[in-house]
Structures
1.
Amino acid sequence: MNIDFAPELEAFRREVADFFASAPTPAIREAGRKTTSVFAPFKECMEWHRILYDQGWVAPHWPKDYGGTGWSVEQRFIFAEEYRKADLPPLLPQSLGMVGPLLIDLGTQAQKDLYLPRILSGQDFWAQGYSEPNSGSDLASLSCRADADGDDYIINGSKIWTTYAHHANRMFMLVRTSNEGKKQQGITFLLLDRMDYPGMVVRPIVGLDGFPEQCEVFFDNVRVPQSGRVGAENDGWSVAKHLLKHERGGSGGASPALTRYCERARAAAAQTPSPFGGMLADDPVFQRDVGELEADIASLGHFEKLAISGHEVAQDPAFPSMNKTINSELIQRASTLMMQVSGVDSLARQLEALRVGSNVEPLGSEFDLVAMPLYLNSRATTIYAGSNEVQRDLIARSMASSGAGA
Amino acid sequence: MDFNYTEEQQMLRDSVGKYLEKNYDFDARQKIVRSHAPWSPDVWQQFAEMGLLALPFSQERGGLGGSVTDCVAFAELFGRHLVTEPFTHSVMLAGAALAAADGTDAQAWLHKLIAGEAVIAFAYEEGHGTPSLDLVTMTAQKSGECYAVFGEKRLVVAGGDAQALVVVARMGEGGAPALFLVEAGAEGIQTRAYPTIDGRSTANIRFDGVRAVLLTGADQQLDRILANAIIVQCAEAVGAMGALVTLTSEYAMTRKQFGMPIAGFQAVAHRLADMKIAYGKARATLIYTTALAESGASGPRDIAILKGQTGKLGRAIGEAAIQTHGGVGMTDELSVSHYHKHLLACDAMFGDHSYHFRKVGQG
């Protein structure tokens, strides 16, 4: 075993930190501080995306030939750590983390040539069309139909929980192309070049935190070319499963962001009086709780580092489900801690003050401003990308075939 | 970054694993626990011949110059087989204390330990989990060339059977903690030996002015010795957790109720999944912290995280294993309850998870 602490890495850390200190605009910084979801404010997030692209750092987890950085595992973690310390908006995962890596692995040459450069540069933003009103956890039961017609498909049906579809200019989706055989067998993976095809309607859905982050997308005889298919017709389920491998993201995992949440909660607790006297940060119960949470976050970080270095833990077929379960539940615990520290100060509904560039002065601190929306939004983490009930089913099933892996 | 065992470590692990599979299955282990001997002298001798008792010590001290990772590699298997022989306490703690000292007495005892001719106990615990050297109250007073130690130690693993003891005591009241060597049977020692819930031989020992030789008082050395021993004990615990996850999932796949394997019921399946998640977290934390320690970069916070996580997750896995096994999980006949009791002991010793989490939270 070895962990590299070479002096060159410290120089790299300084280079990254210097860049993060100088490159983002004030609006981008504000968007980072006001991010209350996995999905950062769109406009500023894409501005930041383009700055990182110009620097060559937009896709550290992509192969170097396709525009990746060629960094070592250590460098990627340093990059992720400094990124979070700087409170910058996380880049949106749908293009860089999902459809991009998928096309690198499974796309045709024409698809790669057309889409990959535009994903990297931030010209395109992709929406993910998977869930449907009647197909959530049971995704394979999806019924949005695509009927072949000449060189085209005609799509009828709807998609839901399509994050930022109202900002997207392209969409990847799963459609039903056959009702024969098992439900998984009649699914096809499609790329849509536009969001404004005739018959296509995007309706934003206001979430419990007050923001229209999710959307519903309706298809009424929407004609799209078959050249947008990835993989074979009726083989979309295996394409989607392949994509799952990439969903764990390449930015160094979730642990740096979670560590940042704890740092913010600690800083606020140092300013908050405890009802039992002294400050909350010195309260034994608070210390015990935050310590347990930080230990769990550290363990997730260790799990992520082992995985990204190619250790056997990541070869386990249940690894993506384990990682998703741990990560999503920690986001909830960390945001719950923030909300509890903020207490009654988190109860004000301050949608306008949360908008980037707003002139409205927030009530209380910036911590109080974000604590409740972050908590509310994080209820989604154990629901999206396969609910944690489904993940636990998958983990238990993997134990039936392989034992526990002990 | 590379978190894999080296080829050499894997070979050592394989040979220890083969030996234990052949000679230390659960029945053989229970025979040792139920015998009148505190542990198996044959097994201990075999460990000596395999070089395990020499592994962590430098070559100048007659050891093999192994790293903490070398020890972790096979300590996981010790946990899987519920080995009751006092490796962590006698080798990682008492042995390391002797290796840190220069005196001829210390070297002679270390030599005997390495050869398997003597077992040395480590008298540290004072009854509260003693998670930190700061909590040691036992004192030593200068007495001629040597020292006299006063106070009580509890849960001294192998304390009733060892030929010598390494005792942690303060240099006078309020002084810094230091390590002393005491010979078993010296005047002023009162020993009450007893077995632990996890089948180990331990003792409470009163020291009333017992003659003691100073080994070392360097606090950095003390911290390092304790940290390495905690890592190895956590490796044993993680090995036990892995065994419980395997046993329990196998049981749930075969035990039928209501006409189907109980693993098919979602409530049971999800508990299995949580056990596997807990094991994954604990093992990743063990491996990463071990690599950090080997790189010389682990600090008190890293050790507290490992110890806290291993304690909490170990207990959770043990409780889930018993619940999943149902009635038979409650019996002495199945290994499940023995794994659980071992995990409880690992949590309680050197500070339980609540203590370590609060230390992490104090920042």
Note: Chain B has a mean pLDDT of 96.
2.
Amino acid sequence: MSRNLHSTLLYSAALVALLLAGLMLPQWLLFLLTMAASHGVVGLGLIVMMRGGVVSFGQGLVFAIGGYVAGLAATRYGVTDAVVLVLLGSAAAAIAGAIAGPLLARYRSIFFAMLTLALSMVLYGILVKSSAVGGSDGFNVPRPSLLGFSINETNSDYAFFALSSVIATVLTLLVTIYCRSSRGLLSLAIRDNELRVEYLGTSVRAAMAINFIIAAALGGAGGALTVISLGHIDPNFSYWTRSGEFVFMAILAGHASAPAVFLASLLLELVRSFSNKYFPDTWQLALGLFLLLIILFLPKGVGSLWAKPERLPRQAAEKAKQAAARNATEAAE
Amino acid sequence: MTKGTYRRVMTAGAMLAAGLFAAGAAQAQQTFKIGIVTFLSGQAAESFGVPAWNGGKVLIDELNKGAAPAPYNKVGFGGLKIEPVVIDENGGATKQVQELRNLYQRDNVDFVIGYVGSGDCLAVAPAAEELKRLLILYDCGTPRIFEDAKYDYVFRTAATGTMDNVALARYLKNSNVKIEKFSMINQDYAWGHDSRSDFIGAMSSLYPNAKPEADLLPAFGSGQYGTEVSALMRTGSTVVHSSLWGGDLQAFILQSAPRGLFKKATVVLSAADHAVPPLGDKMPEGAIIGARGAYGLMAPKSALNDWFWKIYQDAYKVYPVQAPYRMVQSILGVKSAIEKAMEKNGGKKPTNEEIAAALRGHEWDSPGGRIRMVNGNGHQAIQDIAIGKTKWNAATKSMEIVDIQRFPAECVNAPAGQKGQDWLKAGMPGAKC
């Protein structure tokens, strides 16, 4: 457990540093960081799934569920506390994940990707037609309070920044601990050789379903956080381009390090914002070039700059086998 | 160094410092930096975003030269030059909120004019209000912005979509078109849904016996309307209503006209003026079209309109349609409000609050007629509208709009304080035609 304790201390220190730094940052950057953290939480869920070897192209589904539930709880049911809204959004998305997860857990690669994409687009279609929740225009969400404190115009940027930083840090820590647990390490084994994991006596489907539910809960939390700080939600939260952004964010981060996803998210937001400012006619081109360069020169993601991907069991086994063979030949000689 | 020299150096230094300070202060006062947000890419770019900014660009150039006709002949805004920062509206509402904040907080623009998409307008309005910065919505049609919420810093300088469909129904009634059944084809998103229910609402009070028949809602951007045209051709409807726009509208016209839809039924199109120049002689004759205002070929005759028409046509070799008119009416509205505020405060650059106070309930002339901020507590404009019929002029080889009927703003807009849908349901009480 000392490794987890070490991480806990490291993350707490990073959080304190972040919160202090936030006091000196300009407001536009605070908001950008808030958005990057909220989206990063969704990317975190994708990384949990990617460790098991599947990529969801429909994270927009849980992102939208979390967002809509938080938004509706705030507008229809008078829930005003931001933390409660995030928990509600996350719980609702986890329930949706618990329904879809066991069904999807049987599928791999392109089939899994397409099914998740289809589910998110079904939700998009339903939301666009639901005039009760604003149809394609969506609806606005009032500013919530935070743990009994009211948030006003002057402190809202910092309040939402602090909230998203704390939630993102806690969730990243939990995901890191999960990834190190035997259950979490199982994902790597599944990606490597499903059959062998089954023979070892573990249900691969159960493990994949649990990963899906964890990712859904994270996606829902990210959606709720986004809606709270943005003050608006519309069906585009569930659109496939949105899901594609999350996938790209996860690829950009790589699965070597969980915190890398936030750096990736921040990079994506910064590049988009500044290319939008300096090349208003061709900002998509600038964004595309950036993505291309990252894929060409950092194929394992920005996380690979400082963290080594955990070694896969099979690679380790093969290395051992090779070493044994070498020893054997050496002995024979 | 003697005492005298010392004093002279000090004085010179102080004067230099004072000069620099004054120059710095003047620098900050010299311009109006404005953010412009409009579609530069995506489906709404070609038909709305790009022509709108084209209109804004030529107008701002002329205003900065002080070359516009009176009462807009002051340089820039009240003598201060206009410096636009343009941002693409494409990319969804989340991105719009972020970029709006960046415009205010990072680029320090004085105010923002923009937004075509209704969803974008709904999303950015609270963000601007929270920052206490001015936001002028120039195009989007959703009535929900000021009907559902109250704002101090958000204004919309164009009427909502309710007007377009009420005017179409009134045009049919005034032209004595007999209607037993009518059909509709609208896109499956908020604009299509709102237009559809507004048209049904207006028809139910003007033609209480007419029944809606086919009610088609193809997906936004679908582009293929073979099935829909077949369905419309099968009906016995004498009127077909549509709020399609842009590429969807052009595709629908090109696919339905050869199959005789425009001959079989009277097709009424709420926002089709911008499809007339690109379609040319492929635009069918006899279609009843609106422009979301008295714009383009249907603009009222005025010196201001002739002037705008000329600078636009000189610059882009095509005549202006609804989008540039809306951008221009927005810029002129803000200009006249700023100048009104400067008259009041003695010629200083006005604050956000001073401009907002001047804009609330403001009235001004635009190339598309008189714009009045009457609804939504003086934050929502109403304006006159014109509807006409397409007719090919073989001599000039151009599509013309004839039989134009004009409807005053109070005839087609809900009165202040009343929601458009409620007003239509009640049978449009208080309409002054």
Note: The two ends of chain B are 85 Å apart (CA to CA).
